[in-house]
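Researcher: I'm preparing a figure for a lab meeting and need a structural model of a single chain. I don't have an experimental structure, so a prediction will have to do for now. The sequence is pasted below. Please return the structure as tokens so I can convert it later.
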Amino acid sequence: MAYLVILGLLVSIIFAFMGMSGNKPFTDKDRKMGLLGLIPAHLQWVIGVILYFVSPLGIELANEGFMKDSTSRLYVLEHPLTMIIAVVLITVGYARAKRLPDDKKRFSSIAIFYTIALILVLARIPWGAWPGN
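Model: Understood. Here is the structure written out token by token.
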């Protein structure tokens, strides 16, 4: 699912930058391209919240002194908090794009907010725990 989030954000960002640079109107197709980043991110967030409470790498690691251990701190605090911020940014970017009157500002809202969210997601993924590592 995490791969779909990254792919969806990349596609949304590319389409937003193309729309911005081409002075194109913000159409229903562009709105749906924005959803390619929004929907997987929200789905992954729901799955992540569930896993946070049932996985041994979630809230169970929050014991005394977990802040001194970088791996425990990543799983208990840094990763969940950063992902929540990223999902909020994606949501705000999409909501602003729907409400703004100017087409270029609509594209830039998605481009800016989704890009910042993608950077946050990539910065706090526990890469060592991914399959193949």
